[in-house]
Amino acid sequence: MNSLKKYKTTCCYCGVGCGIVVTDTGNGRIHVEGDKEHPVNRGMLCSKGMNLHYTVNDKTDRLLYPQMRMNRSMPMQQTSWDEALERTAAVFKTFIAKYGPDSVGFYVSGQCLTEEYYLWNKLMKGFIGSNNIDTNSRLCMSSAVVAYKLSLGEDAVPVCYDDIEASDCILVEGANPAWCHPILWRRVEAHRAANPDLKIITVDPRRTQTATSSDLHLQINPGTDVTLNHAIARVLIERNWIDNDFIANHTDGFEELSAKVFERTLEESALICGVSVDDIQKAAYWIAQAKGFLSMWTMGLNQSVIGVNKNLSLINLSLITGKIGKPGNGPFSLTGQPNAMGGREVGGLANMLASHRDILNPEHRAEMENFWGGTKISDKMGLTATEMFKGLESGKLKAIWIACTNPMVSLPDARMAEAAMKNARFVVVQDISSRTDTIKFADVVLPAAAWTEKEGTMTNAERRVSYLHKIGEAPGETLADAEIICRFAEKMGWGAHFNYKNFGEIYQEYTRTTEGTNIDVTGVSYNLLKQNTVQWPYPAKDRNAKGTARLFEDHQFYTANKRAKIHGVPDANESESTNNNFPLILLTGRIRDQWHTMTKTGRVNKLKQHIPMPFLEIHPHDAQERGIENEAIVEIKGKRGSVKVKAKLTDEVKPGNVFLPMHWGRVLGNDFGRANNLTNNLVDPKSKEPDFKYSAVEVVKY
Ligand code: SF4
């Protein structure tokens, strides 16, 4: 056993970024355990991480060779890499010549490695000449990205996990880390066990496990986060529990916020939010008293038609109290996917370029044009995730290449997404698994290497960059995604610009684009990362330093005038309205042991045991009114479709709200539990993130 080779790597599921020791047990099989020396998880793994080896060892659903068909009524046929990529290149060239570069698009994933993300962006923006590349991270944290830029001047998470242990008050809003970021939550629990005075406040319309283990649960009505955050800000301002010096010296916009929060009385806000005035005051008091005040959030704030405003109103609480840039303090957006942050670093959204440059900034475009030496970078924003599928539906977008994601389950308004894919003239699906619902729409299928079968880097939620080893050979004819992109670029005629000796060269090219930026990683290399993970920025001149755990310790923010911006945003929710036909608000979310659309975790028996089937949480009052009993099959009807599922009667949701997990697609052969039959296509106007967590529905006995 001792002779078996061990490798240190990083979990490929969530943005916590736990260290994993992988033992290569031979024949393509592995065993995993937590890395006791890793600064994030200190040896701990959650149920998903602990069972990762099953998804690698079980290759029954793996795509093993390229496939294609000449039309969708024909079955897929095995083909060679050359044929598959030559045909794809020919189709892309034809569309580009006939309809222009904006007729094609790439839709990628927060699970791609940084190198892959970099190449996708370079190819689309720097050579094809369109900005039509977006990612499923748009569905996840783009509201937080916009809010960080508007308030701090940069998409830069200012805190680190070690701030958990330095905090006295943690405010969790629109997140259930006990289930969705479990190892981070175990650190919170351990911190509380050692410090019983720690106050945990959870803001969530559901009584989740996180809420249950908190000192205060503000069970707000869906969509009222801004009103609540404003009410807390009002108490802080009224009682002078704010940091006047910090506000005067390091921020702009306080007057705007102050005017806004006094537009409502506390009583009025409490009524809108469905919580008590006392609880709002208690939350404000705990925040004010804390030497370390940490806020954490995820999809409850981000996946909203007012997601940016929700984020800004929460970040305000850190800024008006001056609780940022100090140990234990700051606003912490918890990334959902393992490499959503790495993707943003290299420009992985339709509005960005490498190293957080902006598409709309002519200097930024010129810098990258010179660096890449390809074509002129378009000054037009690319299509975002939902816009791409609308583009396919309308015929504006002709061809789409989907890599490492399963939009037929994960996009809102599944019927529209399906209509879009049916209307697409050409679809390439690049994946590891034959289980994705998206594959049935493909014209070309490209088999990709999986975690442990390729090398590269990822960045977790605290800006920690880690190196992932290639541990075993990829099965069949599968290739690493980066290699597939380079081979395609060569078929398109740009091979000289995508000719790398190894993956380390791709990473080094990316690091050069960061020089002098706020996310400078010119000091980072594969060699360094093979020894240690590091947090950016990490410029070459700091080669002997250990990276940057916490930002803004000098209170110099990344805005033009170095001052953070406080925003007094409107508090109205813009979601679709309930009415007599659809009187209930549908919330969607994750369960503990499943990941995204279950193409990996859905194969692991141990993980299925936790919650094997989709369910609808409905309050007993609402159930009784409709004659629905616990475990009965119900039909959830919405404006865009319907879903059948088993009812779970519980007071964990308030009357008027129902909850459905987001993981299930058509795995059961029908629409059983497919949440996105019901969700809508509304997006936040600034972040373009969909409003997944607020749809009007009715529930009836089936
Ligand atoms: Fe993996 Fe996230 Fe679990 Fe850590 S918390 S083991 S990163 S899924």
From TrEMBL:
Stretches assigned to the 4Fe-4S Mo/W bis-MGD-type domain: 4-60
Cofactor requirements of the protein: Mo-bis(molybdopterin guanine dinucleotide); [4Fe-4S] cluster; FAD
Family of the protein in this entry: Belongs to the prokaryotic molybdopterin-containing oxidoreductase family. NasA/NapA/NarB subfamily.
Keywords (A to Z) from UniProt: 4Fe-4S, FAD, Flavoprotein, Iron, Iron-sulfur, Metal-binding, Molybdenum, Nitrate assimilation, Oxidoreductase
Protein's name according to its UniProt entry: Molybdopterin-dependent oxidoreductase
Protein's UniProt keywords contain Iron-sulfur: yes
Organism (species): Emticicia soli
Membrane-spanning segments: none
Domain of life: Bacteria
Residues of the full protein shown: 1 to 702 of 1174
